[in-house]
Amino acid sequence: MAASLPSWIDDGTRHVWRPYAQMKTAAPPLPVVRTHGSRIELADGRSLVDGVASWWTACHGYNHPAIADAVRRQLDTMPHVMFGGLTHEPAARLAQRLCTLLGPGFDRVFYTDSGSVAVEVAMKMAVQYWLNQGDRRRTRFLAFRGGYHGDTFGTMAVCDPDEGMHSLFRGLLTQHVMAPLPRDEPTMAQLDAIVQEHADELAGILVEPLVQGAGGMLMHPPGVLRRLRELADRHGLLLIYDEIFTGFGRTGTMFAFEQADARPDIITLSKALTGGTLPLAATVASQGVFEGFWSDDPSHALMHGPTFMGNALACAAAHASLDLFEQEPRLAQVAALSAALEAGLAPCRDLPWVRDVRILGAIGVVELAPPFDRDALRARLIEAGVWVRPFGNIVYLTPAFTISDEDLALLLAAVRNAVCDLHPARSHDR
Ligand code: PLP
After folding, report:
1. Which of 36, 300, 373, 430 is most deeply buried (CB count within 10 A of its CB)?
2. CATH (residue range 66-327)
3. Eight-class DSSP state of 239
4. pTM beyond 0.85, yes or no
């Protein structure tokens, strides 16, 4: 079979440095030749049901014709133009649309091209907000254990220092204030004390609302966000929500923060913003934060400007994606998906080597008790015809909101069986 595979697979891939992989030992990447709906077609003819939606981006499934048409039309008019000194309708209208969608309090959109950079910009905005007022002490952030905000140097410093992927760089990163996310009164009291101690040096509080994604799909109730808002208000800190994973329906509401009566001062968005088609991110600030930069003093300007910011193709894709949220019953699909994930993963709860099964919106997680062979588990899932990428101790599903019942059934059965088979004496269903 290998002889009939296209030559780029060997000749080209051997020059590619892959993400999150020990190149010497990692299994070779699967060559993909086509995507559609919730399907990933491989060069050898296999078709996998995608349980990951390409790192949580492809919320409408792959190749949605409405997004493809919008991008094609934009390509004919203007693929990209620099954003320094110039502007264009797709970016201007998208900013207006995002602020309306986010609701009261959101006023200004700063575009970037990746989630990490959107968080970098949020952090830079928060620190400069204080610098512009002459306060040079507020340079640190309160961030949380289990959190993940990106892979750049600035964002690595606000990820979980031990559990995350960046512990190697310990000592080289800015030391922020790390705390466990408060889950009850005693831990809230601990957090109060930590903030009290560091209040004068904090620029803000940074949190992934409702779900800490790449840090382990750890979920917390909306009340936590209300407490963080109170804490931020009490100490005059900026509250930043990183909704790069949770934004655009993933947790059941358009934005996770809608489930708590607690709005942030800055929010970061990316991933599903373009329906998973083109790289685009946004850091959206409140009127109050923006006013901190409104000045006759040129040094009070936000000095940031990625080359591809406000890319017109990506903005056109984002408009088409938002149209789909308006025209099609996406949030109802998420609710149905949530119920199906709950029912489909429930049998895993009975297994002694399963620590937890948790569901929120279109996120289904099975947490395993180590040790187990993660590589074998990954391979087993691919053999079963699904693309699911367990990491740490978890197997998770974050499919497209539009996944068909048949594909979802296949996905759930594959996960149940793979998890059951981790212990040779037990098998659930075949
Ligand atoms: N913030 C959160 C919550 C994320 O989940 C991610 C990526 O998984 C990022 C930031 C970083 O985004 P990117 O990979 O686009 O830089």
Report:
1. 300
2. 3.40.640.10
3. E
4. yes
